[in-house]
Specification:
The longest helix has 16 residues, at 16-31. The chain has one domain: Rossmann fold (3-Layer(aba) Sandwich), CATH 3.40.50. By secondary structure, the protein is α/β, with parallel strands linked by helices. It is globular, with a radius of gyration of 14 Å. Helix content is 33%, strand content 19%.
Amino acid sequence: MVTKDFNIVIVAQAGRLQYEAVLFLSSLRQNSPLFKGKVFVAEPIQGPLWQKDPKISSEGCREALHHLGATLISFENNILEALILTETKLNVSRSCSQMNLLCFLTPIH
């Protein structure tokens, strides 16, 4: 079977999603050791609609993601303070337009 390399983008932010991102990446590395694509973890940056900083707040999660080979990227969410998944995907897609993006995964709420 011939397969193409592809990249994965997941969305994470402070709170539960930062831990789900670590779990996703740990599972990917354990179950797909031959995966050659890049994994990008997109996190929203604080803007005027956010009361507190939404970026990944756990230094332990940041270190784990880095150790597991993730690249953290920031994006602006100009819709609402809370992540609205459809709008977030559009914002991330615009920010990541240069990537070879085959699939887009978002942690389940």
